[in-house]
Structures are given as C-alpha cells and as structure tokens.
Design goal:
Layout (H helix, E strand, L loop, with lengths): L25 H15 L3 E5 L5 H8 L4 E6 L4 H8 L6 E5 L2 H10 L4 E6 L8 H10 L3 E11 L10 E8 L2 E7 L2
Parallel strand pairs: 1-2, 1-4, 2-3, 4-5
Antiparallel strand pairs: 5-7, 6-7
C-alpha cells in the first residue's frame, strides 16, 4: 500500500494487516482522487473510519490544509502516527464515529471533503449522510466520498455527483444540490 500522487507519492504505508482494516485498492484510490482533484487543495478533510489513513494521507499529499483521521480501533493509532510521520496539519481521533460526528457538530466544524469508508457489513452510510446534512457539517461546495459494497446508498439530501463500480465495490461522490 502506498501514496499514489502528490508530495508524498511513493511513500509506503503500514496497516493493511491490522485486524478490522480493509485498504482501498490503488486503482480505486487513483480514480477516486482523479475525480476530486480540483477540490483537494486548501480543503479541510474528514477521513471517517480512517484505518491506515491511506485516503486522508492522499488528501494531505495533494494539498489538503487539514485532515481529521477518525477510527475506533486503538491498534490503529500507532499505525497512523507512523504513516503520518513528517506530514503537516492533522489530528488523530481514536473514538466511535458517532462521538466524533457529535464533537464536530458541537464545535461547529465543517468540512470540504468527507470520506466515508466504513466496514462494509455495517450498512450505516445513509444514517451518516443524514447526520451530516441535518447538522450542516459540509461546507457549501463540499463533497462526500463513499466507498461501499452491498449497501443501498441513497439520499434525497445530497446529489449524486458521480458513481462508479469497481468489481464488488462502489464509489459514490455526493455534493450539495
């Protein structure tokens, strides 16, 4: 697993073997970031369900101003710190995604990009999309990048900007209508 573009291109990342993590394939990550490239520079990013941090690190590598990495796996904190060595402007939060979202709501934190790549078997992207919308966590021109497998992801609160299948995985990008 490696950073595929930007300032840290080629950096090898740890964490693909941590129990409970499921790294995004390089070809999926490459396509995903090519699609959102014009939104990254200067953005504030939330990498919810961060795992190894590969997606948020890709955002830092491509000019994100600040990235919040949220994961509830205590083992992942060491991996994130190692993967983020020498990188600027980030915060690691080892907590449940619900607590993190409520923290951001309570502190009026808004994002330009929100990355949602939860465990595929949990099926709660729709619930998270509703919370983001209802609590105004996305900036006006912001986007939400979702990666999922068997989940039926739909919402009337956001517009589908782009959706693409990669074998059994689907990436859907939402924006505000």
């Amino acid at each position: 697993m490696r950073v595929i573009s930007g300032l840290f291109k080629g950096r090898v990342l740890d964490g693909f073997d941590v129990d409970g993590t499921r790294p995004t394939m390089d070809r999926v990550k490459e396509s995903m970031f090519a699609t959102i490239q014009n939104k990254i520079n200067g953005s504030v990013v939330l990498d919810l369900f961060a795992g190894s941090g590969a997606l948020g690190i890709e955002a830092i590598s491509n000019g994100a101003t600040f990235v919040y990495f949220v994961d509830n796996n205590k083992e992942i904190e060491k991996v994130l710190k190692k993967n983020l060595r020498d990188m600027p402007n980030y915060e690691i939060m080892i907590t449940d995604y619900n607590k993190a979202l409520k923290y951001f709501r309570d502190n009026s934190t808004k994002f330009d990009i929100i990355i949602l790549d939860p465990p595929y078997d949990r099926h709660f992207i729709n619930k998270i999309l509703d919370f983001i919308y209802d609590n105004n966590l996305l900036n006006e021109n912001g986007i939400i990048v979702t990666e999922y497998e068997d989940e039926k992801v739909k919402t009337e609160k956001f517009r589908v900007y782009k959706t693409r299948k990669y074998g059994s995985k689907t990436v859907t990008i939402f924006d505000i209508e």
